Fold this sequence. Notes:
The complex is a heterodimer. By secondary structure, chain A is α/β, with parallel strands linked by helices. Chain A is built from 17 helices and 16 strands. In chain A, α4 crosses α7 (113-129). By secondary structure, chain B is an alpha/beta fold. Helices cover 31% and strands 32% of the residues of chain B. The interface between A and B is large, with 41 and 42 residues. Residues 215-218, 220-225, 235-237 of chain B line the site of FE2/S2 (inorganic) cluster. Iron/sulfur cluster (SF4) is lined by residues 41-44, 47-49, 59-60, 102-104, 111, 113 of chain A.
Amino acid sequence: MGLKKESVPMREQPPKVRKRNFLEVPLGYSKEEAILEAQRCLQCPTHPCIDGCPVHINIPGFIKAIKEDNLQKAIDIIHESNLLPAITGRVCPQEDQCQAVCIMGNVGDPVSIGRLERYVADWELEKRKKGEVSLPKKMPPKNKKVAIIGSGPAGLSCAADLAKMGYDVIIFEGFHKTGGVLTYGIPEFRLPKWIVEEEEKFFKQLGVKFQTDVLVGRTLTIQDLFEQKFEAVFIGVGAGLPRFMHIPGENLDNIYSANEFLTRVNLMKAYKFPEYDTPIKVGKRVAVIGGGNVAMDAARTALRLGAGHVYLIYRRSRKEMPAREEEIEHAEQEGIEFMLLTNPIRYIGDENGFVKQAECIKMRLGEEDASGRRRPIPIEDSEFKLDIDQVIVAIGTTPNPIVPKTTEGLKTGKHGTIWVDENLQTSVKGVFAGGDIVTGAATVITAMGAGRKAAASIDKYLRGEL
Amino acid sequence: MFKILKKEALAPKTILMETYAPLIAKKAEPGQFIVIRVNEKGERIPLTIADFDREQGTITMVFQEIGKTTNLLGTKNVGEYISDILGPLGNPTETDRYGTVVTIGGGVGIAPVYPLSRKLKSLGNKVISIIGYRSKDFVFWEERMRSSSDELLIATNDGSYGAKGFVTDVLKNLIDKDTHIDRIYAIGPAIMMKAVADLTRGYKIKTIVSLNSLMVCGMGMCGACRITVGGETKFTCADGPDFDAHLVNFDELMKRLNTYKEEEKISFEKWKEEVSYGA
Ligand SMILES: Cc1cc2nc3c(=O)[nH]c(=O)nc-3n(C[C@H](O)[C@H](O)[C@H](O)COP(=O)(O)OP(=O)(O)OC[C@H]3O[C@@H](n4cnc5c(N)ncnc54)[C@H](O)[C@@H]3O)c2cc1C
Ligand code: SF4
Ligand code: FES
């Protein structure tokens, strides 16, 4: 059999249909498709893909198992390093990680590692839905309590590992629902919420307890947790504070942060208003500001709500967009109009305070900046006005200061991130941290990796070895 | 799930509800608020903590039945549950011994003014309270307010009880009589707080208001509650809810409060229809 240069495509809902519904866009591989794709893997002895993966999944190993149609073995291999493969298979930026370094990329398409991961994970989820759950082995109870703050991927994975080690684990979550960004941020059409709920069920079966409606720093402090006989604490509160540009008119009505817009739709189900009580505005002409995953999600969500036309305004060029390649392509296919090298400088409102225009300026690219991307520079006298009736600002988020502010001695870094040592321990003894709160907004897989690393450190700490 | 322990109609469309929320009761301070979600399909709305009892583990809210969510909440009875209550949120009201302090409450805003006045009095301030209602029928907590202030002044819009007019009319009277005032707190509808701010600005009397912005998260993560204060954008839930009244852009606040007027109507009409079908 010769080398197949092209990867097996994944079936998708056609753009015309999907841009008006909230159902998942890629439909998954069939068994035949998965095996065909798995056969493209060269089983490289040097396996650069493993090094490209932030949690070092044994990629050729699980792909081999798919080829042999031994999916139980495949999922076991993945689970050794990754507790949430149905999620990461869907949302990881594989093109920058494992697939960026895949040897097959030298001769054609890299192996579709993410799609294969999703295929295996979905197989297992289906089994679980039918009640066939194989719980991993748990160590005998240690009768020690650990508190986890935040139920995003960092907190969830830290909790799961500690539960397996026999600790009593409680996750405290501020929102009424768990999952962090997986629940309130990433939309249904990219990550169906039943998957996140299924994972939560699984973690409960592992013995992890959840307590929602608890904002640590307000409802309880870390000090209180120690008084309640928790012996270690993990902080995985993410970086959820929305940034604004602080330009004139930004507080006009119908200007949202992406966080607010997506929270209304995903967490509060505003797309089902008035069946659900939370309202959301549907714009006729929507401007989304930004070029990352969050911007793509906001733009595509606006479209699905019924927006007439959606602009994506980004100050650099397409090449510099930090979003996953697949999301950019999907957005383009769905008819989102990219206005590149453009930046808003002020918003103009009508007499009732609703936004009606954005004044923008054209940009050009100058020298590379610290991030290695070329710095955008405004072009003089290139201002123009754009008629719009809704704006979604998706220019990034920063860490929420509430836990650092209410915890004595907790050292923070430059942008409000929490400082940790190489074991992810903070400046406060027995308090560990990981995920976006330490790194700044990053990815699901790095947050998950940090949660697991912290779990190992907490175990060491509680055994007196740290 | 949070159990309702007490429910009382204070006035027409004005309801007091006490729920069991020991964690919140333990930490609550005057000026803080909660975000509640009545049921699975509910929206998240902020309500001020009107009172709390650390021993009993209870918190009290007072709300006016206006739209769908507050009306739905009003149908809940003792023994029933509210899905979610998050709190205490926001920063406690700053209090100290200032001298003579005027506390102003309008409508349901009177509820949080009560524990605040109590605290200010206990700190040794001379507390003059001005409370305003629509009419005599809407009067509640007069006795409580009397007990927590050195002087109590009442106004009703139609003059059916106390002085006729707005709380600002009473306040202006007080100032015109050369009453020395060190500080003013005002809690109530945005329009009332704006009127107080406009009045006291000229007299340079330090005035603190508690803003009632629309909210989604209540914990600084969405920006729904943002407002311009002194030319800077602030988040009411995280930076407030108390701000220097003379720096708040009230026009912006009032416009933002109206963002979902149409949707609120749709939601309320639908609910009323469902309720009448059910009946
Ligand atoms: C719209 C959007 C799309 C994204 N798309 C992708 C993608 O495609 N691929 C990818 O890899 N990454 C993506 N990301 C980034 C990724 O989701 C995050 O990097 C990841 O979720 C971080 O995990 P975390 O556990 O550190 O924090 P979070 O997921 O942010 O979870 C933190 C949790 O802590 C809770 N919390 C906060 N403060 C407190 C407190 N004081 N007390 C109690 N609870 C608290 C929060 O409510 C939240 O539930 C996206 C992010 C967004 C917003
Ligand atoms: S680098 Fe690519 S081809 Fe080589 S083992 Fe990994 S997935 Fe297979
Ligand atoms: S309500 Fe979300 S930031 Fe204030």
